[in-house]
Write a structure and sequence with these properties.
Elements lengths: L2 H16 L20 E6 L4 E6 L8 E6 L6 H5 L3 H8 L6 H13 L8 H5 L13 H5 L4 H27 L9 H14 E4 L2 E6 L7 E2 L35 H8 L7 E4 L4 E5 L9 E4 L6 H7 L11 E2 L20 E2 L6 H10 L3 H12 L6 H21 L4 H17 L10 H13 L15 H38 L2
Length: 496
């Protein structure tokens, strides 16, 4: 961290302390900084970048940070003392709560140093890597249709919301650079990636200092399929009473909603009038203290927060199915997936069992399959062969293999760290095309191979997003490989 950044951080933490933000059990204890009793700001290059380190041994469940309500940046806090902003917003009742917060945030940014929130706004990231920040090359490099569709949908939604909000921002006479789509992307990404839930506003709040925590998945693993199935198991502990009618929500989602307090380590306390953060596990001095704010797949993490996990126990692969399969049981499509370890979700396994059953027999055994029991060894063999072949066909259809993606990640790191390209890019035509597509698209020419590549800040940001794209698609493909491996072992061990 440079001297200027250190000075800015020190000034920000002093400002936060003046608002009563504290990591001490006694929020009234005098201190020039809001940290030092439990937490310190540190840098974790391989684990999220800037984050919190424990300055002492911390036990699970300990309160480690308290942020008073007055220090929470909400749309209400920004609008209450701004008559013109409030009056203008009243003319547009159809704006969503997040659009209102985005407008209010940009309005506050336009004040510059005169804003009361300037110490906080100044230390916010200047750019983000959420899906709606991806350019066309980065979108196409995802390779998997589901991810491309999700990204394109996110981009369209963000642009539509900006177009709806543009008239009011013009009416407020904000600075020209504040009303651009680029500025809107920044505000939307700030809100998506940094806001926390509050009971009185669905847009949430920005929480100074509290947004320094890096993410970890929930410590207690939930089986998202709503059952305790394993590949080729004979029965399931959770059965569904009726698969014949419409299924509007999975049992797992109900479990998550009923036990939401077990999936997150922070929340607004009415009693304390503060946002309170608790230790989700035991930490030793020097450990990074992480925050769990729910279960997410890697694609969801990219969509809403702009990062992913190398090892995400909640990751999933959604594969394209034959259209008729979606109507066999009326499962929500989001329940039909392959989990990170290569096992089929409860819904997908039952759907596959019915799909491989001859049409003439489906009606008679549909309810039996829905109970979760195996129909026969022959049916399980058919499911194993079907899903393994399905995954193999998908893998063969992608532009690059897992091995090529892993090589590409090494090349990207070489570009990032040394601004150089090694000769092994010529070993794969697909990789060579992809590499030069992004480099030449950012005006990095082939004739610079003899020396260091001239990489601008803008190009570096694009390369960072490209790396995320390759990491994501590689992890997706590995899930398919895990599935193939699981079912091949089942066929070898039990049915051959």
């Amino acid at each position: 961290m440079g001297e200027e950044n250190e000075a800015n951080l020190k000034s920000f933490l002093e400002w936060a302390a003046s608002l009563g933000i504290s990591d001490s059990p006694d929020p009234h204890s005098p201190s020039p900084s809001c940290l030092g009793h439990s937490l310190s700001v540190s840098h974790f290059p391989q684990a999220g970048g800037r984050g919190f380190a424990a300055v002492r041994d911390i036990k699970k469940g300990e309160l480690v940070l308290r942020v008073p309500k007055a220090a929470l940046l909400t749309s209400d806090a920004l609008i209450s003392k701004e008559y013109n902003l409030s009056a203008s917003l009243d003319k547009y009742p159809l704006l969503s709560s997040t659009q209102i917060l985005s407008i209010a945030l940009l309005h506050e940014v336009s004040k510059g140093r005169s804003s009361w929130w300037y110490p906080y706004i100044k230390q916010l990231p200047r750019s983000y890597d959420l899906l709606f920040n991806f350019n066309q090359f980065e979108v196409e490099a995802l390779q998997i249709d589901d991810a491309i569709w999700t990204t394109e949908k996110a981009v369209r939604k963000c642009k539509m919301e900006w177009e709806e909000a543009s008239p009011i921002m013009s009416e407020l006479h904000l600075k020209p650079q504040i009303v651009t789509f680029k500025a809107w992307l920044w505000a939307s990404a700030t809100i998506s990636s940094r806001t926390m839930h509050i009971p009185w506003n669905t847009a949430g709040c920005l929480c100074p200092v509290g947004d320094f925590f890096n993410y970890t998945p929930p410590g207690e693993e939930f089986d998202h399929s709503g059952n305790s199935s394993t590949c080729g198991s004979g029965s399931f502990s959770n059965t569904i009473s009726s698969c014949e009618g419409d299924i509007t929500a999975s049992s797992t989602q109900e479990l998550i909603e009923e036990n939401q307090d077990r999936l997150i380590d922070a929340g607004y306390s009415e009693a304390a009038s503060s946002y309170c953060f608790y230790s989700g596990t035991d930490y030793a001095r020097g450990d990074q203290i992480l925050l769990s704010y729910g279960t997410y797949t890697n694609l969801e993490l990219l969509e809403h927060y702009g990062f992913l996990l190398n090892e995400n126990p909640n990751d999933k692969a959604f594969i394209p199915l034959e259209p008729e399969m979606y109507s066999l049981y009326k499962w929500p499509r989001e329940s039909l997936y392959i989990s990170q370890d290569g096992k089929l979700s409860f819904a997908l396994l039952l759907t596959a069992r019915l799909w491989v059953t001859p049409r003439s027999k489906r009606r008679s055994i549909k309810s039996i399959i829905c109970s979760g029991f195996q129909i026969s060894a022959e049916n399980e063999v058919a499911v194993a062969k079907w899903i393994a072949e399905k995954c193999r066909l998908l893998l063969r259809g992608y532009a690059t293999s897992i091995e090529e993606d892993e090589l590409l990640l090494c090349i990207i790191e070489e570009i990032q760290n040394y601004h150089k390209l090694s000769e092994n890019i010529e070993s794969s035509a697909a990789l060579n095309d992809e590499i030069w597509c992004i480099l030449e698209g950012n005006n990095v020419k082939r004739d610079e191979l003899c020396g260091k590549l001239n990489i601008s800040v803008k190009t570096r940001r694009s390369i960072d997003r490209w790396k995320l794209v390759v990491q994501w698609r590689c992890s997706y493909k590995k899930i398919l490989c895990n599935c193939i491996s699981n079912y091949n072992k089942m066929l070898d061990n039990n049915f051959c």
